[in-house]
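Reminder to self: tokens first, then the designed residues, so the page reads top to bottom the way the pipeline ran.
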């Protein structure tokens, strides 16, 4: 743990070149980064054949490559769904806690039928190349669009009807992990009936992290088999020792959270790009403001550890009043050159099955609000500069026409001046009197840093809800401020109205919010609010985050959707042994 803390400090003090990359310069840096354990990723996902209108659910396991114990290195994981012709369907950032994370994706109605790749990785893994990533094959069928034309019949893969996925032809259990077992007292159930099953630990394994999926399995044969944790590559490229040399460029591990990076460039080539202060502000209730300093190449980075957040990020260069400096953000997307996408032929025999499945999806989506998942609130550590000594709710006072009058008449310990048409604000420190100082206060509007006070006065006091004042001297990154003057607007939309040039506002999606997934309840003690609603769920249970020790019982209710269902349990023991269990039940 001490080594990890030292490495985190080293990363935070390094300049860099491109996204998360840094050019090694000294033998000390070489040794430090060579000592960081390598990682690998496994993803447990609910199905490799999905229709538009269904959900892809997944659990993200980030493991130390040498022993597959949960990795404490990366705090952010990446999941991408990629199609042919360089199509990025989505890229998710996953907040990792003890190497574990989760996410989901609603398959839209405008997606094309085809072969897709589900990939999982961390930035630290990119140093071993994309061949070290988790890569799985998915088939997505869009019943609302015509099937794509096949250019080469000899090179395509066929999706056909199969008779080998029923209980009469397949054994009830497909155990792959001898130290665990699924126990079921029966295998045939009726509609809306309670199902209980045990996961039994046959050999002492300590605490194990698992994820559980119960989903309908249609009689469809597809060419891409679902990947199991028991077949994680034993000789993974990430296990091999990556020999670093001086002047190598490496991707930095995200040891403390998201790493947002980029560089600045002068438009007229006369302004210096070295040692410039650049600000990053994120609006919203969990917003924040950070200040970074560029290196000799104009490179900068920000480390953010807030969990879920607004995707709108506002950048600014302190002292750049003429907008003569551009900001170029680094991209996190991986290359797709090494991926092989197959053309698909779907048998017409499957049309009735897909049509019925699509109808059930539409019915389920129509009752989305009654069966919605719940968001798990993320832990948010309030920045120190938000500890205001005084907060003024303006509606509790006489409303004045201007902000200047409001400050003079209501706000204590704040001085406002106007010289040659330019406003300045000063916050009193610990002294009794205002002293002229070059240390300006930190001015925030809806958590967005404002360096031109005139923009604040032009905004209009009638649109402001409250003002917070802090008199303490604070540092944000390398920048020092004398106090804080913070404004919260009524609509919370200052970033949409602020007078900055559009290139300074970027859409940077943050980590997905954690969810507790809906579980249907039909017991006598449960509320009957949903008892009268049609129930055609294919996904009867999705439990992505669970830790077991010894034997444990799980339960779920069946739906009105008849057929064969698969109970899939995936995970890893605390000492890195994979867990993979399958069992089937019938609803009739």
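Designed residues (588 positions):
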């Amino acid at each position: 743990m001490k080594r990890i803390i030292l490495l985190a400090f080293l990363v935070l003090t390094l300049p860099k070149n491109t996204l998360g990359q840094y050019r090694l310069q000294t033998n000390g840096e070489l040794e430090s980064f060579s000592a960081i354990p390598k990682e690998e990723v496994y993803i447990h996902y609910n199905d490799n054949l999905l229709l538009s209108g269904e959900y892809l659910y997944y659990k993200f396991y980030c493991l130390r490559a040498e022993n597959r114990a949960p990795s404490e290195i990366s705090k952010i994981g990446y999941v991408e769904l990629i199609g042919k012709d360089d199509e990025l369907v989505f890229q998710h950032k996953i907040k990792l806690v003890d190497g574990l994370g989760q996410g989901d994706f609603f398959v839209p109605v405008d997606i094309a039928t085809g072969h897709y790749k589900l990939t999982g990785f961390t930035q630290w893994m990119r140093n071993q190349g994309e061949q070290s990533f988790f890569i799985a094959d998915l088939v997505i069928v869009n019943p609302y669009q015509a099937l794509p034309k096949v250019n080469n019949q000899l090179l395509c893969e066929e999706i056909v009807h199969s008779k080998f996925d029923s209980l009469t032809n397949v054994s009830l259990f497909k155990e792959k992990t001898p130290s665990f077992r699924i126990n079921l007292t029966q295998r045939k159930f009726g509609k809306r009936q309670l199902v209980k099953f045990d996961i039994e630990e046959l050999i002492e394994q300590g605490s194990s992290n698992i994820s559980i999926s119960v989903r309908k399995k249609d009689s469809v044969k597809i060419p891409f088999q679902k990947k199991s944790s028991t077949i994680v590559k034993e000789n993974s490229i990430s296990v091999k020792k990556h020999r670093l040399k001086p002047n190598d460029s490496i991707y930095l591990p995200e040891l403390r959270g998201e790493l947002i990076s980029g560089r600045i460039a002068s438009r007229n080539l006369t302004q210096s790009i070295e040692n410039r202060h650049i600000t990053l502000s994120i609006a919203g209730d969990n917003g924040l403001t950070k200040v970074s300093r560029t290196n000799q190449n104009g490179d900068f980075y920000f480390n953010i550890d807030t969990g879920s957040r607004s995707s709108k990020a506002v950048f600014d260069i302190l002292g750049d009043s003429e907008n003569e400096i551009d900001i170029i953000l680094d991209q996190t997307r991986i290359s797709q050159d090494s991926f092989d996408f197959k053309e698909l032929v779907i048998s017409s025999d499957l049309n009735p099955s897909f049509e019925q499945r699509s109808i059930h999806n539409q019915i389920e989506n129509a009752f989305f609000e009654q069966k919605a998942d719940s968001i798990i609130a993320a832990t948010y550590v309030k920045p120190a500069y938000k500890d205001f000594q005084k907060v003024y709710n303006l509606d509790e006072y006489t409303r004045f026409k201007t902000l200047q009058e409001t400050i003079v008449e209501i706000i204590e310990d704040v001085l406002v001046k106007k010289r040659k048409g330019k406003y300045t604000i000063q916050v009193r420190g610990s002294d009794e009197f205002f002293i002229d100082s070059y240390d300006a206060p930190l001015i925030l509007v809806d958590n967005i840093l404002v360096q031109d006070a005139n923009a604040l006065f032009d905004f209009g006091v009638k649109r402001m809800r409250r003002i917070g004042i802090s008199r303490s001297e604070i540092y944000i990154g390398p920048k020092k401020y004398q106090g804080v003057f913070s404004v919260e607007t009524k609509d919370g939309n200052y970033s949409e109205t602020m007078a900055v040039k559009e290139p300074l506002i970027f859409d940077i999606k943050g980590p997905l919010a954690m969810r507790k997934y809906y579980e249907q309840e039909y017991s006598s003690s449960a509320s009957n609010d949903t008892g009268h609603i049609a129930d055609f769920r294919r996904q009867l249970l999705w439990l992505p985050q669970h830790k077991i020790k010894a034997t444990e019982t799980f339960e779920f209710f069946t739906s009105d959707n008849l057929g064969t269902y698969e109970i899939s349990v995936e995970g890893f023991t605390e000492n890195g042994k994979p867990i993979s269990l399958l069992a089937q039940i019938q609803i009739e």
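The radius of gyration is 28 Å.
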